[in-house]
Amino acid sequence: MKTVWCVVVNAGILFPYRVIAIDENETVDELKAKMRDSRKIYSCSIDEITLYLAKKDSKWPESPDPDVIRFLRVAVYLVDPEEVNDVEGDPLSDFIDYVYANESRVLESGIYSVVFGPLVNMRASYQFKYLRKVESVELDEDGEDQPTFEVLGESPFVEMERGHSEPLQIRLVLTGRKGEMRVTWVSGQVFGPSVRFGTATSGLMERRAEATSGSYDALDMCDEHATTRSSVYFRHPGYLQDAVMTDLVPGTKYIYRVGSATGVSSPELEFTFPVALGDRNIENQRPQSFFVFGDLGTSVLQKPIDELDFDDRNPERQFNALDMVSRLAKWGDERTVMERIRQDFDESLREDASDDTPEYAAVVHIGDISYAKGSTYLWDQYGAVVQSVASRLPYMVGVGNHEYDYTVNGEGHDLSGSEAALSNGWHPDGANFGNDSHGECGVPYARRFHMPEAMDATSNPPFWYSFRVGLTHHVVLSSEHRCTVGSPMREWLEREFRDNVDRESTPWLIVHLHRPLYCSESYEGDHVVAKLLRGCLEDLLAANNVDFVFSGHYHAYEQTCPVFQDECREQEGTAQAPTHIMIGSGGAELDDVSYFQANWSRSRQQEYGHGRLHIYNASHAHFEFVRARDRVVTDAVWVVSNHNWNTSSARRRGRIAH
């Protein structure tokens, strides 16, 4: 990720800014001398993406007329030279971010600044333009004003220093096979992509695994916006590289580097291969732990808490790309969920970590991944957001409505199976399954995330699959596909519980799916879906003694008691039903609605944050919700379970014999 220093100057007329090249050591007087040049864009030097706005005319009012200044903005564009003739729509409207001129900050001596960045290497050039919005009588398809823009100045193309071959968006993934770790990344077209790796103790990366390479096209997807060729909708996603490191030893730290024979390589990265499956020597080990959350996207908190004017009972919940500081500048904001996870993970790796410090085995992201909704560049930005964690810890995902839901053209495009494709997804009566993917219909999700397929040939990763780590067996389901008796996912789930779950080896059975079975927020359309999911799955989950059900979808946090058929089920502090934890608080705009009364609801918060699940032994687990804005644990629960409760009605109706 790189940045660029530029200057935008007021030349003393109504919309008069221009961009000039500067040296970071230049004085204000030297800058003023440059301002006397004719209005023109010169080159920008790569360093940090900061645009400096300076006044030439000292009579420029300190508080410009907002009705005038609101038409001025500095916008940033992606430019794909090879695709410039294929784009649809108005290129001037296709900026990926912008800042209004009146949102600049005063530095000194009449110089103002706006900030973009860090900018991700998306295998394209960046360009900055100073725009004036022109009033238009044209309306879009929704009857809204269709703005047009006049260019008052533009920068040259800004290239990334490491070029299009740079390997980015690096993620680790469990394969489901003994001693293996998958690594995936994105780059431009290269020759001989591979990963080199070795043990950290040796300091040598003597082993090499070749990568396969793939991609996808607008024609592979179902509908607009995903099929619209544009810098802000479909653009070439790069080449998705996929390699598997083998013969890894549990508990061993490895170093690795990805790259290609003809391009650049990544920095040296490291990971620790998770503890052995069924390892019960946990009394002599740190807790086996997992991060869990849903509904991330690429947004971050807009301002520090103490700068906001809001009711203390209602935490900040809005994201604003048009804030004084650009959205793109705040991925490293320490209050974001991914930054909080990174901090937790880094602390767990310290050499002086105590015996109680968690030993994290994986991240589980339960749907609504990037909120790209047809915009390829948002997949690129999402990959950059998670890389600091995902390149060092297995990153497992489940599908959400914003990756998959669609309404037309499924046949020949939907990769989740013919049944779903023929019906254009699942659309039960009264439920709110629409076109939330904006035509992606799961294609980018399926191409970008290679989840385990080894447990059962009838699994359907990344839509439904399972993986096992230490004392845990994880089942990842799709809430966007039919779960009724006889459906492909339901039949696979019954076989998974019957044939592959071994409570002696992995006593903790955990289910993840995007939409919750239990939530007390007042969203009527989603309540229809929750009741439908309970009708599909609740008996089966209870009959098989599922310990936890993690979900997202609602942009909030809620924890239930161990619950079955709307009733809490506990005996002398021991769970007798699954505990449901909804944690859709990863980054999308928080919910701001009321709750209905529910006796099974133990804790609920409309806050950003992530979950930490700690497995202490075969019978004791501890879950914590970490609030992002101050990194405080605001809810926690111990779950004690013998994994064999007596829910007789569930056993009769769950169709699984024990």
TrEMBL record:
Residues 1-21 form the signal peptide. GO terms for cellular component: extracellular region; host cell. Residues 351-557 form the Calcineurin-like phosphoesterase domain. It is found in: Host cell; Secreted. GO terms for molecular function: acid phosphatase activity; metal ion binding. It comes from the Eukaryota. Keywords: Secreted, Signal. Residues 3-66 form the Crinkler effector protein N-terminal domain. It holds the Pfam family Metallophos_C. Residues 577-635 form the Purple acid phosphatase C-terminal domain. PANTHER family: PURPLE ACID PHOSPHATASE, PURPLE ACID PHOSPHATASE-RELATED. This is Purple acid phosphatase. It comes from Phytophthora cactorum.
